[in-house]
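Try this one yourself first.
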């Protein structure tokens, strides 16, 4: 257990080798199969020989709670200590899925270093992302060569370097799905004038489970829950990575230029148009290499199209067709004829004597004229401008210029969700409208609130979400456009992102966006997330406290699963009820107990309870029960409290006067007896009454809201009143004097006593 794992002083590469001339440095047998090698020392070691030199289990200070066991991993993984890409023998925890490579397993660290690395690991693991380019989660890592070949990015086809992302799932072990961080952040959600489909804009779509689509480039299936660029008018689809390919080689026997394809995970189903044989995998790998004309479904073997050897006037030696040439590990590789950048994993013509490297099309003098393609694109753009039409990434049809003369509240811009006025673009068939200024929004911008990465213009549809939360105003939006960082999940709505008027102290605003959330009402280990919910036409989300529609400043506890308004935080954690003086009631959430007032369960709602007396109340019901004012009726011994909650049809709620069920209507209830209730109409509250607190008589109103302040008070007791409750108000004063029913009735001298039929004075 105390033996440190050690194989070699340098980092070892792990890969599968066939019939190597080198011999194992331990057993002196030839290398054939999986083995370790050191590129600098030419050190070789069989995988089985390496296992004999390593301890079967170790204890590591970075993961001291469990033992780490030796495990063989031929797939790539990210070391949980140094966060670099690794392969081969690893030490892994069987409980926690914690794994480190051999170098990190053999290193000793101090407590401070261990603590710092543990914190770094936590931050790093939380950055796993779900990106539209791939159907599985992508894991971040720092790239280093782990096998005999370098890994390359699927988007730009350059070699990996620095911080990268990859799918380390077992389901993608043969595909090597890796991306540069910069490539993930720069992937567009729409491509205009793509070389294979110049006629229409290609928009990003997510392939759903019930859909079947094939890529028009490589003819492979589009995977479920993976993004594709698509023109739905023409039923044209491209894998995200196939969309980066472009024609490069002229072919005399065909009208169109040909494109070089190198596809990982190739199924081997394509046939060459020259020899009519199936195009095989490249050198026994899972890659397919061929030339294609995507427009005509025209595919050719590489060796049927280009010669194995050729000569060029720029070089005196013969050039040989070579799979790929990587002279050194750098970020850039160039063609020695055109001096333009080349893809390191592509086939090239190469001179072994002089290390002369060139593109295939350059060596054969069959270079595609890029200027001609550019002229075609410009001509099409000019035609569209004359017709006053544009293509937009968020809509499948072309948008036509449209000027709104009269404002119409139904016409809302799909980008900023504001009313359409003045110049705009529209698809009247789909009732899709955009302000002209919104069509000119920048596709990418840098914002001071998120300086680490660029933000990309997206819509709700394009990011495959039901809503997004703006990190600046904390607004929750169910429609419209936003600027998003895919790596950090940072989102700003278009209004906040394009607002040029920053606050006087920008640092204060940045700190405000990073402010700590409030703590959960029921578990101090949980945090409440602040959300500013935008109004919606259809109400579907309610506060679990007051049971009203969630609009405006609100909080959510994702762990407990409840939403509350900001003003709902004012509900007391403990309350003393007049009808229950023995014990206070305490706030609680989600119990399957019936409420004493309305009879309905407290499941998935916030309420109060007295655990000793088996008393349970909804928060709203407790608020009505806590009122000091009650109304006396002859039909019952105790004072009754007014209630206006949402009480559905129930066999338990029966009016004590008419003996009919109480459903969706205000009523009076007895807080002490809990089983006596009275319809509001059966209480026969006088329609008009005179009080000593006002010179004019009061009129009974169903409810009264004098303004949009959100705070309403009784002009007699000066306590807050609910805006939707019944009230008495002065009609002659035009609502300047409003009061609780109980306050007005108590102010009548002598007080009134209601019998249900008539009301009379009592002495």
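Now uncover the answer:
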């Amino acid at each position: 257990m105390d033996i440190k794992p050690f194989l070699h002083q340098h980092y070892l590469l792990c890969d599968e080798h066939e019939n190597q001339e080198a011999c194992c440095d331990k057993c002196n047998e030839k290398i054939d199969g999986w083995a370790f090698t050191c590129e600098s020392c030419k050190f070789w070691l069989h995988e089985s020989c390496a296992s004999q030199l390593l301890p079967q289990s170790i204890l590591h200070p970075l993961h001291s709670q469990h033992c780490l066991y030796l495990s063989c991993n031929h797939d790539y993984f990210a070391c949980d200590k140094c966060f670099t890409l690794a392969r081969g023998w690893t030490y892994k925890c069987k409980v926690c899925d914690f794994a480190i490579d051999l170098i990190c397993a053999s290193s000793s660290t101090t407590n401070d270093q261990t603590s710092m690395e543990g914190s770094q690991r936590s931050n790093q693991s939380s950055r796993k992302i779900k990106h539209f380019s791939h159907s599985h989660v992508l894991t971040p890592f720092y790239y280093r060569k782990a096998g005999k070949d370098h890994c390359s990015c699927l988007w730009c086809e350059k070699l990996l370097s620095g911080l990268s992302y990859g799918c380390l799932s077992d389901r993608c072990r043969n595909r090597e799905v890796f991306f540069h961080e910069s490539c993930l952040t720069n992937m567009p959600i729409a491509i205009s004038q793509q070389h294979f489909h110049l006629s229409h804009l290609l928009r990003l779509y997510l392939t759903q489970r019930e859909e079947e689509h094939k890529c028009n480039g490589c003819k492979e299936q589009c995977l479920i829950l993976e993004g594709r660029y698509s023109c739905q008018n023409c039923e044209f689809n491209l894998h995200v990575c196939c969309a980066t390919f472009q024609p490069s080689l002229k072919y005399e026997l065909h009208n169109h230029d040909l494109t070089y394809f190198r596809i990982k995970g190739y199924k081997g189903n394509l046939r060459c148009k020259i020899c009519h044989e199936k195009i095989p995998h490249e050198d026994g790998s899972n890659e397919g290499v061929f030339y294609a004309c995507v427009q005509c479904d025209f595919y050719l073997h590489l060796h049927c199209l280009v010669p194995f050897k050729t000569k060029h006037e720029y070089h005196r030696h013969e050039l040989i067709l070579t799979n790929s040439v990587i002279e050194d590990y750098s970020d850039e590789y160039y063609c020695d004829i055109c001096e333009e950048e080349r893809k390191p994993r592509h086939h090239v013509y190469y001179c072994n004597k002089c290390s002369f490297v060139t593109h295939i099309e350059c060596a054969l003098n069959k270079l595609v004229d890029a200027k001609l393609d550019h002229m075609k694109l410009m001509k099409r753009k000019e035609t569209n401008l004359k017709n006053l039409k544009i293509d937009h990434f968020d809509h499948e049809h072309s948008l036509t210029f449209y000027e709104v003369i009269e404002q119409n509240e139904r016409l809302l811009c799909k980008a900023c969700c504001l009313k359409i006025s003045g110049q705009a673009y529209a698809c009247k068939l789909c009732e899709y409208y955009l302000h002209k200024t919104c069509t000119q929004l920048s596709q990418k911008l840098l914002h001071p609130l998120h300086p680490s990465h660029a933000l990309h213009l997206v819509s709700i549809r394009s990011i495959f979400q039901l809503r997004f939360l703006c990190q600046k105003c904390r607004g929750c939006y169910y429609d419209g456009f936003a600027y998003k960082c895919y790596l950090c999940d940072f989102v700003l709505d278009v209004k906040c992102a394009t607002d040029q008027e920053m606050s006087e102290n920008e640092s204060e605003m940045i700190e405000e966006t990073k402010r700590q959330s409030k703590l959960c009402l029921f578990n101090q280990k949980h945090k409440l997330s602040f959300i500013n919910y935008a109004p919606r036409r259809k109400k579907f989300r309610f506060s679990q406290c007051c049971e009203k529609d969630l609009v405006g400043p609100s909080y959510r506890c994702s762990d407990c699963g409840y939403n509350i308004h900001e003003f709902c935080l004012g509900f007391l954690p403990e309350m003393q009820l007049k009808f229950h003086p023995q014990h206070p009631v305490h706030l609680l959430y989600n119990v399957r107990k019936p409420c004493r007032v309305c009879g309905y369960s407290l499941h998935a709602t916030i309420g109060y309870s007295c655990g000793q007396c088996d008393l349970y109340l909804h928060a709203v019901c407790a608020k009505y029960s806590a009122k000091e004012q009650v109304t006396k009726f002859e039909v019952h011994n105790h004072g009754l409290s007014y209630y206006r909650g949402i009480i559905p049809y129930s066999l338990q709620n029966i009016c004590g006067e008419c003996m009919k069920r109480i459903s969706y209507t205000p009523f009076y209830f007895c807080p002490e007896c809990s089983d006596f209730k009275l319809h509001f109409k059966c209480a026969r509250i006088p329609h008009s009454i005179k009080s000593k607190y006002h010179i004019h008589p009061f009129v009974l109103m169903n409810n009264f809201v004098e303004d949009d302040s959100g705070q309403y008070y009784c002009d007699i007791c000066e306590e807050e009143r609910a805006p939707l409750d019944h009230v008495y108000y002065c009609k002659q004063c035009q609502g300047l004097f409003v009061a609780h029913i109980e306050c007005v009735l108590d102010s009548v001298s002598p007080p009134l006593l209601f019998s249900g039929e008539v009301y009379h004075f009592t002495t």
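Discussion: The longest strand covers residues 63-78. Residues 370-386 form the longest helix (17 residues).
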